[in-house]
């Protein structure tokens, strides 16, 4: 079997036009995940139309929605949600696509995920919520959105740090003002 695969790869190298056919016939999962990572919405839709599982995880344990959230891809996020991607799936660290989007400051994707039913106060294995990750990474607009949408300001991570402590550690003056205003109800 190994010789057969080596021969196919060798043939593909000799005939570049056959590379796409080889990939799509022998390694469709690779093509699918590559299309997700490269934000090729149309190609991903064609895979999903043929019955690919929108929630299937790759070798890293990540479903396509994680990549869309990480990359801040509004169109990919919408397409995956249209095909019923699960918004509260967790990676190996307990992070959800919402936590990933918050960590990277992709506020537009955060809003889409929240509308789709993402748990705004979900905690990862360390007890971090989406709001905590947005504060830690200094994404002011994402922090504002999460507070506006009703994120619980009283939660603590699993070491006992709360929103105020994380804000103090971050040293981001704009975020400090936003959180102070929210905590004091002004």
List keywords for this structure.
mainly alpha; 60% helix; Serine Threonine Protein Phosphatase 5, Tetratricopeptide repeat; 0% strand; elongated; 186 residues
Describe the structure.
The protein has 186 residues and is an all-alpha fold. It has helices at 2-14, 17-26, 28-37, 41-49, 64-71, 74-82, 97-104, 107-115, 130-137, 140-148, 163-170, 173-183. Helix 5 (64-71) runs antiparallel to helix 6, helix 9 (130-137) runs parallel beside helix 11 and helix 10 (140-148) runs parallel beside helix 12 (173-183). The protein is elongated. The protein starts with a helix and ends with a helix.
- Oligomeric state of the chains present here: single chain
Proportion of strand residues: under 5%
Enter the CATH topology name: Serine Threonine Protein Phosphatase 5, Tetratricopeptide repeat
Shape call: elongated
Number of E-type strands: 0
Task: Please report the first level of CATH classification, the CATH class.
Answer: Mainly Alpha
| Weakly predicted, low-confidence segments | 4-8, 15-24
Report the major sheet. Answer: none
Total count of helical runs of at least 4 residues: 12
**Which whole number gives the mean pLDDT?**
88
Task: Name the CATH superfamily assignment.
Answer: Ankyrin repeat-containing domain
The tally of domains stands at: 1
Structural class: mainly alpha
The residue fraction in helices comes out at: 55-70%
Order of helices and strands: HHHHHHHHHHHH
CATH architecture: Alpha Horseshoe
The span between the termini is 69 Å
What is the radius of gyration?
A: 20 Å
């Amino acid at each position: 079997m190994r010789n057969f695969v080596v021969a196919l790869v060798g043939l593909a190298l000799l005939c570049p036009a056959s590379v796409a056919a080889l990939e799509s016939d022998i390694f469709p999962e690779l093509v699918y995940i590559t299309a997700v990572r490269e934000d090729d919405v149309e190609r991903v839709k064609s895979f999903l139309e043929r019955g690919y599982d929108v929630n299937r995880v790759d070798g890293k344990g990540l479903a396509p929605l994680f990549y869309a959230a990480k990359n801040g891809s509004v169109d990919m996020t919408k397409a995956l949600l249209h095909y019923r991607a699960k918004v509260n799936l967790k990676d190996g660290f307990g992070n959800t696509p919402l936590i990933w989007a918050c960590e990277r400051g992709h506020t537009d994707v955060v809003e889409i995920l929240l509308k789709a039913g993402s748990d705004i106060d979900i905690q990862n294995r360390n007890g971090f919520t989406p709001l905590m990750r947005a504060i830690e990474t200094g994404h002011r607009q994402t922090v504002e959105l999460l507070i506006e949408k009703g994120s619980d300001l009283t939660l603590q991570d699993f070491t006992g740090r709360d929103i105020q402590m994380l804000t103090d550690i971050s040293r981001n003056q704009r975020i400090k003002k936003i959180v102070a205003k929210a905590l004091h109800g002004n």
